[in-house]
Design brief:
Number of strands: 23
CATH architecture of the largest domain: 2-Layer Sandwich
Strand content: 15-25%
Oligomer: single chain
Largest sheet: 6 strands, antiparallel
Helix content: 40-55%
Structural class: alpha+beta
Distance between the termini: 125 Å
Bound molecules: adenosine-5'-triphosphate, magnesium ion
Amino acid sequence: MRVLTQQGLSIDDLGAVLAALPLALLVLDRDLRVVAYSGPNDPAKYLGRYAPELATPEQRDFHERQLRRVLDGGEIVTFDVETLDDKLHNWTRVRLSPLATGEEIRGVVVMSMNIDHERAAQRRADRLRATFDHVDEGVLLVELATGHVIECNEAAARLFQLPHEELTSTAPSWLQITPEGGVRFGWGALLDELVEGRTVRGRAILREGQELSMELRATARTIDGHTFAFVLCRDISKDLARERARATQERLATVGSLAAGVAHEINNPLAYVIANVQYALDSIAQWPLQDGRDAALAQQRAQLKEALFEANEGARRVQRIVADLKTLARQGDDRVEQIDVEHTLNWAIGVTMAEIRHRARLVKNVGPISPVRGDEARLGQVFVNILLNAAQAIEPGNAHENEIIVRTTERDGRVVVEVLDSGGGIPEENLTKIFDPFFTTKPRGIGTGLGLSICHEIVASMRGSLTAANRETHGAHFVVEIPAMGAYPAAAVLHQRHGKSSKPPLRTAKILVIDDESLAAKALGRMLREHKVDIADHAPTGLKMALENGYDVIFCDLMMPELSGMAVHAAVERSSPQIAERMVFITGGTFTEEARDFAAHHAARCLFKPFDSSLVKGAIERLLGDA
Ligand SMILES: Nc1ncnc2c1ncn2[C@@H]1O[C@H](COP(=O)(O)OP(=O)(O)OP(=O)(O)O)[C@@H](O)[C@H]1O
Ligand SMILES: [Mg+2]
């Protein structure tokens, strides 16, 4: 050791200088005995002691080895040790360096200092780092002057699909974001936008070209004269899918209530159109034949019959569309039963096979799965619609080169049915529209565009989901997910049965028809022409007649402005319960909660407009038979 002192500074002064430093200094000889000590403790505790013995018993060997490295190898060694003083954890940094004169090593200089502050700061930094990494939103710390990312957390590394080191210390100039309907941002423009306090949501392109939907926000802070932006970023693909599903649901709900109103308005006139056309058709069939005597009349009759037949067909078509609309409005009177999904799927495949056969091979990967709860016929309708769409997406004639894959799985308590095809797929911009009612890309007459909106509604009513995507290669991929049975408590079981009996009517009955739509009432009256029918197109009058005249059967419309069918029923029930038992309720669509409950409760006695004469007759036979 070379000690230089200037004039006026003695070797003793040097000792005082050392004692003023926040460290302990020991000088060891070649036998590792302490020959000098300067520090806060009593030197008598150290002088002459074998240095390794000053360490705790567990650390003794370690210390000895380190000291030998210095003594024998001339190395400088530094290490941190934890010591327990008065139950306090202390950290000490120890530095061992050779005490050499020229080539000769004469001993070791041990310098030790307390580093509790440094350790505490380190621990705090570690905790902050762990917290930072634990945040599940990506965080980038960006130096605004250069645009460099100087720190990032684990979530950011995951989001950008890059290791921490590659994301930090450079500017991510590869990042591009295109907000919906907006222009594409590069990194610089994006930072400007974020620092202004705006949130940017859009399609992001990452370094290797991967794409995802992202949302970014930022706040700017100045630290030590440098301005930084804390950029928060997250993957919003799932949020977007959820938002889209909610928007579809809301749109369908609006359309649903509209549809309920429209269905009601159409069903009323349709009821008498169908009833009257049927009446005319029946009557014409009973005209006595003229035995060829009047050929012109016979021909006229045939033409009239044909015209009426076509009118009937048209009206039936309207009836089917209105029925579909009612499904949309949840007006269908669904059964709730246990459904064997595999069986339903096989049925749907059977029904659509004629369409599929000349367009594609059907690849079936259908295994046993749990049953679900719902209306089997409606679920069948869902599969038929999806399979038909798949078939219609493929040009006919190349069956061996095309495929429709149907597969089933079960995950997280949900039954999953997937249908994949090799057709043209769905253009990206249509993916959100295909569930809208009346959205179709098919020519007139082929599609009404109601298929998927109805499927969506049916699956939603079973607490499931229906989603569409495009396959990586080509073609569309539809996924139906429904909770497996047992995954939710049993819903109320609704039954609707139109009792049909083949027995002839027992007798001519006395019947009252109450319907404020007088044409509908008259048409129903015509259907019942073999009975004695009274008609009331004013509800209060109808109620009065019902109470006074003792009818065998009363047909009563549910939705009437002055007095509802439910109120009529309640009044009749009060004065003559047996007659109330023989009331049949007719409806063109129930769109109040009360009416819906009432119809569900009296499902076996409800007739839906436009009604079929066989159902009307069946109802009378049953009621008279029961009487
Ligand atoms: N597998 C598919 N591949 C490609 N496009 C499809 C597929 N399924 C549905 N689509 C698109 O979605 C639209 C809506 O389908 P949806 O079933 O609701 O009505 P539609 O088939 O046109 O008519 P409808 O089912 O009422 O007869 C279709 O017109 C078509 O553009
Ligand atoms: Mg369809």
